[in-house]
Specification:
- The protein is mainly alpha-helical and about 280 residues long.
- Helices cover about 65% and strands about 5% of the residues.
- It has a two-stranded antiparallel sheet. A two-stranded antiparallel sheet has the order 3-4.
- The chain has one domain.
- Its main location: membrane.
């Protein structure tokens, strides 16, 4: 897809090393110096969003069989997944920008307002659906399990919450249906879908979510675990280096969050519910 965006759009590079120049007129208006700062900070949040897998990393490690040791398996899996993800992120970012230049939208499939060729966009959208359906399940399962366990402990005698009903399946065996699980998961998915449709600020939301999850889950928590596990002495050179990394990443998180919030505020000026602005 990344190579295709580039070679089908232009035979030349359309970007620049400095990005959108101050004073450039875009579909959102004239770019000011302050807007460029906000966009730069927002981009940090978008990059930080690549580390969102840390939210479910411990949940996955908890289900890994041993031997070999869980941390050994997860270390290999993490290295491989980050390498593959980094390659695709760089391809999409670099070649997409080279093809479309400074006006490259956040959504390369619909950001230009064109829908031809239909078959190419349909294939790309199908791939996105397959990817997001699986990712949505993986990210939501820890939340589902937490809520259902809490409710079962809160109302242990409520059949709506705890009762399991066996439904025969044509392939043998039976499927256990829980009414509370069915109702609450359906409501949760409906609400999150409605919010996503109501607020089509893709880049801003991605940047904000990336910022919120980056420092506490990807930096602070692992560093504190490492210090505790390795018994790193307070005030030692290693301890100071780790704290410097943590503080630096904290400021990155704050800057990215501020930039993303500023982006949402700017988008609200031309905001129309349930409509994406091209």
């Amino acid at each position: 897809m990344s190579f295709g965006f580039f070679f089908t759009e232009h035979e030349r590079f359309d970007g620049s090393l400095l990005g959108i120049s101050i004073g450039t007129v875009t579909h959102a208006g004239t770019v000011t110096g302050m807007q460029k700062i906000w966009r730069t900070l927002q981009a940090l949040g978008a990059i930080a969003f690549a580390y969102s897998y840390s939210v479910i990393l411990i949940e996955i490690q908890d289900t890994v069989k041993s031997p070999p040791a869980e941390y050994t398996t997860m270390k290999k899996a993490t290295l491989f997944s980050i390498t593959v993800t980094t390659v695709f992120y760089l391809l999409c970012g670099c070649f997409g920008y080279a093809a479309f230049g400074d006006l490259s939208p956040g959504n390369l499939l619909t950001g230009f307002g064109f829908y031809n060729p239909y078959w190419l966009l349909d294939i790309a959208n199908l791939a996105i659906v397959i990817h997001l359906v699986g990712a949505y399940q993986v990210f939501c399962q820890p939340l589902f399990a937490f809520v259902e366990k809490w409710c079962a402990q809160k109302w242990p005698n409520c059949n709506f919450v705890t009762a399991e009903y066996e439904i025969p399946t044509p392939f043998g065996g039976a499927y256990e249906l829980n009414l509370f699980r069915l109702v609450w998961r359906t409501i949760f998915v409906a609400i999150t879908t409605l919010i996503a449709m109501l607020m089509p600020f893709f880049n801003d939301v991605v940047g904000f979510l990336g910022a919120m999850g980056f420092w506490p889950l990807t930096v602070y928590f692992p560093i504190e675990m490492y210090i505790s596990h390795k018994k790193v002495g307070r005030g030692t050179s290693r301890w100071l280096a780790l704290q410097i990394i943590s503080v630096a990443c904290f400021f990155v998180t704050v800057a990215a969050a501020v930039g993303s919030i500023a982006g949402v505020v700017l988008d609200l000026k031309t905001y129309k519910p349930f409509k994406t602005s091209y």
